[in-house]
Structure formats: C-alpha cells, structure tokens
Design brief:
The chain is an all-alpha fold. The protein has one domain. It is 77% helix and 0% strand. It has 4 helices and no strands. Helix 1 (2-28) packs antiparallel against helix 2 and helix 3 packs antiparallel against helix 4. It is elongated and about 55 Å long. The two termini are 19 Å apart. 24% of the residues are buried. Keywords: Membrane, Transmembrane, Transmembrane helix. The chain crosses the membrane at residues 40-60, 67-86, 92-114.
Length: 124
C-alpha cells in the first residue's frame, strides 16, 4: 500500500516535471503564453515533492521499504525551491541544467518504483 502511494505521487510529480521543458520549449518558439503555465507549475512542484516525501517516509517506515527515496526527495525539494529562485531571476546558466537534473531524478525514481526491486522489503 505504501509503495502504491509513493508510485502515485511519483507519477504526478513526473507528469508536472516533464511538462516544464515542453512548456519552456514552446516559450522559446514564440508561444509567450506558455510561461503562464510554466511559472505556476514550477512554483508548485516543491509542494508535490512534500507530498512525495510523506509517501516516501511511509514507504520506508512503516512500509519497511528503502530509506533512499525519502533522502532523494529531500534533495528534490531543495533543488526545486532553488530552481524557482533561479527561474525568476532568469539565470538560465543554473536554471536549465538544474531543471534537467530534476527531470532525470524524478523520472528515474518513477521508473524504479515500478520495478520489482521496489517491492522487496528491507530486512531488519
């Protein structure tokens, strides 16, 4: 049950994270209205990550899963808050590579959560 909670929050996170570079691409192509979605989604991603953190903690304890998803999620929260700051400052030298790292991390965690290794319980 706790793994499914983690999977669902990861899927939600992945959808919104994956939308960000698409929206940025539309903006760079001249669709200035894309920023009307890119900004608010980016500003709320860390909230999804907080929900993901709760799910990851529940997956770890009491779900007897692994601790690392919770630790990586804490890193994602920090990265996404940092991303918002650099985005509004239009510091693209940091914003673009950090965004790439966030997308890779969330998608990697999402794929991992559906693999058999995520179902294995950690022995005490």
């Amino acid at each position: 049950m706790t793994l499914w909670m983690l999977r669902l929050t990861l899927l939600l996170h992945a959808v919104f994270v994956a939308a960000q570079p698409i929206l940025a691409g539309y903006f760079l192509s001249g669709e200035v209205d894309a920023m009307e979605l890119h900004g608010p989604i980016g500003s709320s991603l860390f909230l999804i990550a907080f929900i993901q953190l709760i799910a990851a903690i529940l997956y770890w304890r009491p779900g007897r899963g692994r601790l690392w998803p919770a630790l990586v999620t804490v890193g994602l929260i920090v990265a996404e808050l940092t991303q918002v700051v650099f985005g509004y400052q239009q510091n693209f030298a940091v914003h673009v590579p950090l965004g790439t790292a966030i997308v890779i991390a969330v998608l990697w965690m999402t794929v991992w959560s559906f693999r058999s290794g995520a179902r294995r319980k950690v022995n005490k």
